[in-house]
Automatic annotation (TrEMBL):
It comes from Flemingia macrophylla. The keyword 4Fe-4S does not apply. Gene3D superfamilies: NAD(P)-binding Rossmann-like Domain. One of its GO terms (molecular function) is oxidoreductase activity. Residues 125-310 form the D-isomer specific 2-hydroxyacid dehydrogenase NAD-binding domain. This is D-3-phosphoglycerate dehydrogenase. Keywords: Oxidoreductase. InterPro entries: D-isomer_2_OHA_DH_cat_dom, D-isomer_DH_CS, D-isomer_DH_NAD-bd, NAD(P)-bd_dom_sf. PANTHER family: D-ISOMER SPECIFIC 2-HYDROXYACID DEHYDROGENASE FAMILY PROTEIN (PTHR42938:SF25), FORMATE DEHYDROGENASE 1 (PTHR42938). Residues 29-337 form the D-isomer specific 2-hydroxyacid dehydrogenase catalytic domain.
């Protein structure tokens, strides 16, 4: 009997356990489990948020999704080797605490999976939905009205892309046929030097009519008909779409957010929708997630919200599942980790 118990323990020592946190974005764990289903030495589990704290010590890899991993939770992760996001955003992870405990933290670059393309398409969907007054159209159908309301087109508009990373690039590419003017800000445009990126300076010049730095964002906001937020959320960008920023926008301009809800000051948005200064909000992310269906913001006809679905497509999620699965296999075998961006 004792030898059997020892055999079981020996087998368990050679199992790499992967934890997905929480019930949201279920395709992430489902597709990853499918990708790894023929590898008996890898176990993929999903735990409710409330169980992560007490059970995280049993796992070697953690996929956080929308969970916040604070220093206390991380200190309990005694076997943890890698914390990953199923995507780009790592604002919920205490990276300093992970580093202190010798745990690597990584994101999946959006350009490698089709995630940035998907998010760019969602931005256009939200822009068109606001310009074409989607919510009011549904009311017209219910009232058996034809030809109302009068809507707008993208043609001739000035689009401000706030944060010209992978999503911003893919958005600018897809906006070209619409006959718009694209202005964009980026912390450093030098990264698009030909030797450093697949996108050359000439490519950027073709995609962006006016380039600016972070310091230009208020000036650019004054010129734009639509602002699209594509920033990563961190300590410097949290709440960046605040009262000052929205006040600097044109009266009636639209705001679209396909990045993170924490980039936007909720009260500032509500106040400017109330006053009519903000012409509309299209967002795939929110200040609290999952969204509250009774939130006061839904009283505005010029608000369109989608349930954090911008990057959730069959292609992007299968691609990310493969990257997560391959990294877990590399970790199990003791090989160098590829396909991800380590941040510590």
């Amino acid at each position: 009997m004792e030898s059997n118990r020892n055999s079981v323990k020996d087998v368990e020592k050679h199992i790499t356990r992967v934890l997905f946190c929480g019930p949201h974005l279920p395709a992430s764990n489902e597709y990853t489990a499918q990708y790894l289903q023929n590898h008996s030495h890898i176990k993929v589990d999903v735990l409710p948020f409330e169980d992560v704290r007490k059970d995280i010590a049993n796992y070697h890899v953690c996929i956080v999704k929308s969970m916040r991993l604070d220093s206390d939770i991380i200190s309990r992760a005694s076997q943890m080797q890698l914390i990953m996001q199923y995507g780009v955003g790592l604002e919920g992870v205490d990276i300093d605490a992970a580093t202190k405990h010798g745990i690597k933290v990584a994101r999946i670059p959006s350009g490698a999976t089709g995630n940035s393309v998907s998010c760019a398409e969602m931005a256009i969907y939200l822009m068109l939905g606001l310009l074409r007054k989607h919510n009011e159209l549904q009311i017209s159908i219910q009232q058996k009205m034809l030809g109302v309301p009068t809507t707008e087109t993208l043609w001739g508009k000035t689009i401000f892309i706030l944060g010209f990373g992978n999503i911003g690039v893919d958005l600018a590419k897809r906006l070209q046929p619409f006959g718009v003017k694209v202005i964009a800000t980026k912390r450093s445009w030098a990264s698009y030097a030909p030797h450093a990126s697949k996108l050359s300076r000439n490519d950027v010049d073709d995609l962006v009519d006016v380039k600016g730095s972070h310091e230009d964002m208020y000036d650019f906001a004054r010129k734009a008909d639509i602002v699209v937020c594509c920033l990563r959320q961190n300590s410097k960008t949290a709440g960046i779409i605040n009262n000052k920023f929205i006040s600097s926008m044109k009266k009636g301009a639209l705001l679209v957010n396909i990045a993170r809800g924490g980039l936007v000051d909720y009260e500032a948005v509500i106040n400017h929708l109330e006053s009519g200064h903000l012409g509309g909000l299209g967002t795939d992310v929110a200040w609290t997630e999952p969204f509250d269906p009774d939130d006061q913001i839904f009283k505005f006809k010029n608000v369109i919200m989608t349930p954090h679905i911008a990057g959730v497509t069959e292609h992007s999620y299968r691609s990310m599942a493969k990257i997560v699965g391959d990294v877990v296999l590399q970790l199990h075998a003791g090989h160098p980790l590829t396909g991800i961006e380590l941040v510590n």
